[in-house]
Design goal:
- The chain has about 325 residues and is mainly alpha-helical.
- About 75% of the residues lie in helices and about 0% in strands.
- A two-stranded antiparallel ribbon has the order 1-2.
- Strand 1 and strand 2 form a beta hairpin.
- The longest helix has about 35 residues.
- The protein is flat and about 85 Å long.
- About 25% of the residues are buried.
């Protein structure tokens, strides 16, 4: 209150308005000088705004409502009008408070992180040699190898996941093979276990790891490896000191492309996992369509998005800062 009385609040408001006008002037000048490039950027920005920002704002709005069962839609309005016609804004944070109070949601989120993290690691371990082989192959063979990686995308992931049920059930070839070598008991099934979830996620998301890695490794100057060998470096040393650091952008891109969608995966844990594979995606489905608690489900979705996006943006900021520091050194 003291800042408002002595003019500090008005000065702060004036600074904000001045900065906003300065921002709009920069945008206006940029549009005048680079109109063509801005128009090209405008199309994807409009697409993201229409199909990501707007739905997210709708979900965020629902998360601050209160569930009302038996009506359509099953939640209260945020803006209510009193008898005299005045409008009042009512925000309910009970859904967000329940996320912290009920250990079910925290456990589901941690389990989703576990599934996504382990699956991303195995995608990297399997996909890196595949991408390296594609990058070192002859140009004539690269197209065929890339087609083999992309070929599973020609079939719906839902159909591929359903097909894995026949492989993982008790009389499926994977279960019988593991039982024959003594890994599992005879008559047991891989289906409805965490192992089935890991295999399903790795199988479905492996191309997202291979493609950016192959694109990065194909731009690598392999004469550096020959120079390292001439200087006496062993293959392992050449890989650790040359190939691996130079392929780090592809590793980061592939890990993000696998990890982020795997956290919210619903189909694979629901079809292949057991009752213990309660991920955040299954919780969202249950709250939306079974319990009909839309505000709670929206709060889960918003919290999940923020818990994924904020660390990702922080990591991106640190990486950009490190690259700028290395470029200026």
């Amino acid at each position: 209150m003291s800042q408002v009385r002595d003019g500090g609040g008005w000065q702060l408001f004036a600074d904000v308005v001045r900065n906003l006008f300065g921002f709009f002037r920069v945008v206006r000048d940029e549009f005048r000088t680079n109109r063509g490039r801005l128009l090209v950027k405008l199309v994807p920005m409009l697409w993201l705004g229409l199909f990501f920002a707007v739905p997210f704002l709708i979900v965020a709005k629902i998360s601050f409502a209160e569930a009302v069962f038996g009506q359509v839609p099953p939640y209260t309005a945020l803006i209510e009008r009193t008898a005299d016609g005045a409008a009042s804004l009512r925000l309910h944070i009970s859904s967000y408070a329940l996320l912290l109070q009920d250990p079910l949601y925290v456990a589901a989120y941690l389990r989703s992180l576990l599934f996504a993290g382990v699956s991303t690691l195995f995608c990297l371990l399997i996909g890196y040699p595949m991408a390296y082989g594609i990058a070192r192959a002859k140009p004539v063979m690269r197209l065929g190898l890339m087609m083999l990686v992309i070929l599973p995308f020609w079939t719906s992931s839902l159909l591929r996941t359903y097909a894995m049920i026949g492989i993982f059930k008790a009389n499926g070839w994977l279960s019988t093979t593991l039982a024959a070598v003594g890994v599992i008991e005879p008559g047991a099934a891989v289906l409805h276990t965490n192992l089935a979830v890991y295999i399903g996620i790795v199988y479905n998301y492996l191309p997202f790891m291979v493609l950016p890695l192959a694109a990065t490794l194909m731009r690598l100057d392999f004469t550096l490896l020959e120079a390292a060998a001439d200087l006496g470096a062993k293959p392992v040393q050449s890989f650790l000191r040359i190939t691996l650091p130079l392929s780090m952008p592809g590793i980061i891109a592939g890990c993000l492309l696998v990890f982020i969608p795997a956290v919210g995966e619903f189909v694979i844990p629901d079809l292949l996992g057991g009752p213990d594979a309660l991920t955040i995606g299954r919780v969202l489905w249950t709250e939306f369509f079974t319990n009909r608690d839309w505000p709670l489900a929206s709060a889960v979705a918003v919290a999940m998005l923020l818990l994924i996006v904020i660390p990702t943006l922080l990591f991106e900021y640190i990486e950009n800062k490190r690259e700028r520091r290395e470029a200026s050194a």
